[in-house]
Design a protein that fits this description.
With about 675 residues, the protein is mainly beta. The chain is built from 3 helices and 59 strands. Strands 26, 28, 31, 34, 37, 38, 40, 41, 45, 46, 49, 53, 55 and 57 form a 14-stranded parallel beta sheet that branches.
Length: about 675
């Protein structure tokens, strides 16, 4: 209910603002806010209740037609129940024979008005507030699941009242529920009277049947109808597809056939495949389990299936006990083995960081294979999951590396050689790539006359040797890089001793006894990354952007911006150098950073050193640190320029990475997830 919570938060905020303006007493404010929270909770409960009831109702409406063998036919429920728990006489929890557990509540709960939902007995359509909808309560031949409505509440900004919304399927947009005059149906509280459940009149267990009586018009008034669902403990059918084979509610079937376990209780069983698929189920049971095998049809669609399913994408397994049935269904689709390359081939756009990759701007993209996994020349390369690509050259001008996995899973690249930028208007772009080897440095601009238009890493992992840098560019020219964008990456510093110095971007150094400090005119975006020492008791003497010491440093252009936002730093101490250092004239933003240390030595660290310059704009916002052992003082400034004041980063009251409180602190994989209290600080990598 994310949408609901968004509206609820807005409503609470408005209420607080109004109460603040009226100048009420503190205890009155507390009472009003608590009352508002109670009403919001009530709305959430009512929405949850309504959707649970509809899910239950939709399931029991589905029927199965049985041939009696004498020219007559009998309709029985397609789904049966193995067990019913009566919770309090009005609430029932039923375990269906396909393994699903659903709850039904009869009567009243809360004090809000719900939409009138019913089923037209003549058309089989859902009725909403007395009118037919275009949606079927049951499938066309009654054996197929119908369209299941789902309800939601939203805030009408013009009236500041909540109103009901409905949709029939996840792919459809939410629509307002309206009355006969096409007005929104608002959620209104009824004074002194509980809101009645308008859909169901009664439910009870009668011997071996669960009997549900419902109002056909959904208005809480007669006429009614009933559904009788058999309770059969020794009839069941449950399909257990491995979780890793599921995506977006579909069982993804690869080029070869795929199999899943089926739990079966009953007399006979068979499987139905959709058009274009083949499905089979083993003839014998082992410990009450069989094997379901599904693959794309290689001959006529459905040729090897016992029947053709009505639904175009569902495999159905049915088990009977006498005249009753247990039915289990799973949606199937072909697994996408080359997702981003297909998007590329079809002329689509692929966004990597802040760069768009497509055939028009980056032609001749190539999908690597196990037979051809070596990268030795410039180009755009799509790397399949499970294959390790190998970089065989040190020199590249334009290189784009993209994981071809449709779920965004990373691929491994063997980068035995460092990346040496060559030529002009070069590019180094990578998405969802784990670079296997640590390098010294990882990449460099090693001569004058070389430029990189884009240096972009998105969702990658890079390992940097102890005391070394990610990029050395001091041998190049001023402004040799046009765009620096790092988002969602993990930078692992393989420290072999404590407090070894490393720089992410190094534009200052000595070459042939001459000190070079390069100017930079590039927007630098460092967003949602993790920087960490791979050894828990070794810290990094680190900096992100280094343009040089004192007034010999390079100048950062006044027209550009350095943004360091939503990053987590583990034992990353900016002590001998600031996190950003140079003659900074452009804008600098430090926002939403989480800095953690268990350093054995107390140190004074700083975020920004601009030397004699004054930045155009500086933002320090939502910064937090935690020192597990020695005190690490983190000041905003190393030398405060005119017009600014010195401030220190606030300390957290508890350890954000306390694993006993639910945090994740995984140095091997670079996964650092703080406790719930600090979930909004630092990198939002989950």
């Amino acid at each position: 209910m994310n949408c609901v919570m968004k509206y609820i938060k807005s409503y609470i905020l408005l209420a607080l603002m109004v109460l603040a303006v009226t100048g009420c007493k503190q205890e009155d404010l507390k009472d009003d806010v608590n009352a508002l929270k109670d009403r919001v909770t009530l709305l959430e409960e009512q929405v949850k209740l309504l959707n649970e009831n509809i899910a239950f109702f939709s399931k029991v409406l589905v029927c199965q037609t049985i041939d009696n063998g004498d020219g007559t036919f009998t309709e029985v429920p397609a789904y049966s129940i193995s067990e019913v728990l009566v919770n309090d006489g009005t609430t029932f929890t039923a375990k269906f024979n396909d393994g699903n557990v659903l709850t039904l509540a009869i009567g009243s709960k809360g004090t809000v008005t719900t939409p009138q939902l019913g089923v037209n007995p003549e058309t089989g359509k859902w009725m909403l507030n007395g009118s037919d909808t275009p949606y079927n309560a049951v499938g066309a031949d009654s054996s197929v699941d119908g369209d299941k409505p789902e309800f939601n509440i939203a805030l009408d900004n013009s009236t500041r009242q909540y109103y009901w919304q409905v949709r029939f399927g996840d792919s459809e947009p939410w629509q307002p529920v309206t009355d006969a005059e096409d007005n929104k149906v608002y959620v209104t509280e009824v004074d002194g009277e509980l809101a009645k459940d308008n859909l169901f009149k009664d439910a009870e267990v009668e011997e071996n049947e669960f009997v549900l009586t419902y109002y056909t018009n959904g208005d809480g008034q007669d006429p009614t109808d009933e559904v009788r669902i058999p309770i059969i403990s020794d009839l069941s059918c449950v399909i257990n597809v491995p979780e890793e084979d599921m995506a977006d509610g579909y069982w993804e079937i690869g080029v070869d056939e795929s199999s899943a376990e089926v739990e079966i209780k009953g007399d006979h069983w068979f499987v139905i495949a959709p058009h274009g698929w083949e499905a089979s189920i083993s003839e014998t049971l082992t410990d009450g389990k069989a094997t379901l095998t599904v693959k794309k049809s290689t001959a006529s669609a459905g040729l090897k299936s016992r029947a053709t399913a009505n639904n175009t994408d569902e495999v159905v397994v049915q088990v009977n006990k006498g005249m009753y049935w247990a039915v289990a269904k799973v949606k199937v689709r072909e697994a996408v083995t080359s997702y981003f390359k297909q998007v590329y081939d079809q002329g689509g756009d692929i966004t990597v960081g802040n760069v768009t990759i497509n055939k028009a701007t980056y032609p001749d993209g190539k999908l690597l294979s196990t037979a051809e996994a070596t990268i030795s020349a410039d180009g755009v390369y799509f790397i399949p999951q499970g294959m390790e690509a190998v970089i065989s050259s040190t020199d590249f001008n334009k290189l784009v590396l993209i994981s071809d996995n449709p779920k965004g899973e990373p691929v491994v690249v063997d980068n035995t050689n460092l990346f040496n930028a060559t030529g002009t208007a070069g590019e180094f772009i990578a998405q969802n790539v784990i670079f296997k080897n640590e390098k010294n440095p990882f990449m460099q601009i090693d001569a004058t006359g070389i430029t990189l238009k884009n240096l972009v890493l998105d969702g990658c992992k890079v390992t940097i040797a102890s005391g070394k840098n990610f990029l050395n560019a001091f041998k190049g020219d001023d402004n040799s890089i046009g765009n620096i964008y790092l988002e969602g990456n993990r930078f692992a510093f393989n420290q072999t001793a404590d407090y070894q110095a490393s720089r992410l971007f190094n534009f200052s150094g000595t070459f042939e006894n001459v000190l070079y400090s390069r100017n930079l005119s590039a927007d630098v975006s460092i967003i949602n990354n993790v920087f960490y020492s791979t050894t828990n008791n070794y810290t990094i003497n680190a900096t992100i952007l280094f343009l040089g010491n004192n007034d010999t440093a390079g100048i950062y252009n006044a027209a550009n911006t350095v943004t360091i936002e939503n990053n987590t730093f583990i034992n990353f101490l900016c002590a001998s150098q600031s996190m950003v250092r140079g003659r900074i004239e452009g804008a600098v933003t430090f926002r939403n950073l989480l800095l953690w240390s268990n350093s054995a030595t107390a140190r004074n660290t700083t975020l920004l050193n601009v030397h004699s310059k004054t930045p155009s704009v500086v933002t320090f916002e939502n910064l937090l640190k935690f020192d597990k052992d020695k005190e690490i003082t983190i000041s905003y400034w190393s030398g405060v320029p005119s017009g600014y004041t010195q401030t220190k980063v606030e300390a957290a009251s508890s350890d954000p990475f306390d694993v006993s409180a639910g945090a994740t602190f995984d140095l091997e994989n670079g996964v650092f997830i703080p406790t719930a209290e600090y979930a909004n600080y630092g990198a939002q990598q989950r």
